Amino acid sequence: MGAWGSGSFDNDEATDWLAQMTKVAPKDLANILTEAAESPDYLEAPAASVAVAAAEVIAAWNGAPATGLPAAIADWVKKNQKISTPVLKDLAVRALERVRRNSELKDLWMEADGLNDWTTAIQDLQTRLGN
After folding, report:
1. pLDDT in tens, 1-25
2. In 39-70, which positions are buried (b, 16+ CB within 10 angstroms) versus exposed (e)?
3. Where are the alpha helices (DSSP H) in 4-103?
4. Domain limits of the chain?
5. What is the mean pLDDT of the chain?
6. How confident is the model at residue 86 (pLDDT cuts 50, 70, 90)?
7. 114 exposed, middle or buried (CB, 10 Å; 0-12, 13-18, 19+)?
8. What is the pLDDT, as a whole number, of residue 114?
């Protein structure tokens, strides 16, 4: 049975991605978020889950971490000192909007009758990103 919850790290894809956090570079975050925000293809749940986790990194990097932020992200932020990231913040906001409005992840939450809790969690992240 896989992990499943409304939090940004409450699913297998995000957990697996977090396990690789030491290998993630800022350009990798940009690639993940760009793909989620701009790809014309249907956004599958695994890619949407990783985009949400990547957006959490951007929020933490910009001083607005989630409560209970995973240690892997806190360590990454310490190693990658905060720089001006308006482009990454914009990409994160656009990726989250796409995930929230048109993705397999949204569809799964609608089927599971948990859309309200999940949407609230995504909107909290959007707020922490400044939108």
Report:
1. 354 667 788 888 999 999 999 899 9
2. eeeebebbbbbbbbbbbbbbbbbbeebbeebb
3. 12-19, 26-38, 45-61, 71-79, 86-101
4. 12-128
5. 90
6. confident
7. middle
8. 80
